[in-house]
Hints:
The structure is a homodimer.
Chain A: H1 3-6, E1 12-15, H2 17-26, E2 29-36, E3 39-46, E4 48-50, E5 53-58, H3 63-67, E6 71-81, E7 86-98, H4 105-113, E8 124-138
Antiparallel strand pairs in A: 1-8, 2-3, 2-6, 4-5, 5-8, 6-7, 7-8
Amino acid sequence: MTACEARSLxxxxxxxxxxSLRLLEAHGVGRLGANAHCxxxxxxxxxxxxxxxxxxxxxxxxxxxxATGNTxxxxxxxxxxxxxxxxxxxxxxxxxxxxxxxxxxxxCEAAQRxxxxxxxxxxxxxxxxxxxxxxxxxxxxxx
Amino acid sequence: MTACEARSLxxxxxxxxxxSLRLLEAHGVGRLGANAHCxxxxxxxxxxxxxxxxxxxxxxxxxxxxATGNTxxxxxxxxxxxxxxxxxxxxxxxxxxxxxxxxxxxxCEAAQRxxxxxxxxxxxxxxxxxxxxxxxxxxxxxx
Lengths: 143, 143
């Protein structure tokens, strides 16, 4: 079956919670979806997982800082195969907050290991605690 | 300079409007940021550009359908290099609407060419008209 023929079929399947969480653990770059300046925004960030929560660093005073203080956000990861028009994505919805201080030292220590790609002037540590996670996959090849 | 040393520097630069628009024209998969069910959502879609607007197809009655009817949304594309911890992203903010009928035949015809990766049952054509576009790049290598 060619990729073109395959596209005429429905090939969207659900990725279960456990696999979605494994993909989140294994991936390193995702996109935060939030609201800033009264409209939606989407920003890519490099992240890690600490105690089941998404953690990343951002610049104090920047859009991501302002959009992630104690509010509900979305966080998405994906992978696309342009040759076969296949891919997968996982999205979580959870509460983001800015953390540091006693009691969250594990998060801070992990965040210190999480070097921001854009440089070290990213002093705000954002944590997204979530329960809601969903994933989906497009595949055109036979099992 | 190793990638590790380079990360200690600030390497975030702005991508200008013209280059951002060229990247949008050349790319094929992006992420829509919107609000659904009273919280932010981020969904990947394959898209094309028609008369300067982003166009993609989605399933009638789905989350993307409900989140894109005559409202302000964000649309983001990016590329990440995990070896060098480099990458770029472009985000637009604009008004999304559902289109079809006389007067927008060019959009519909382009959308017919835009085969949904997930299958053909994507009858809603979404167009995002935008003026606001911003891009940024992280690069650690010398010019």
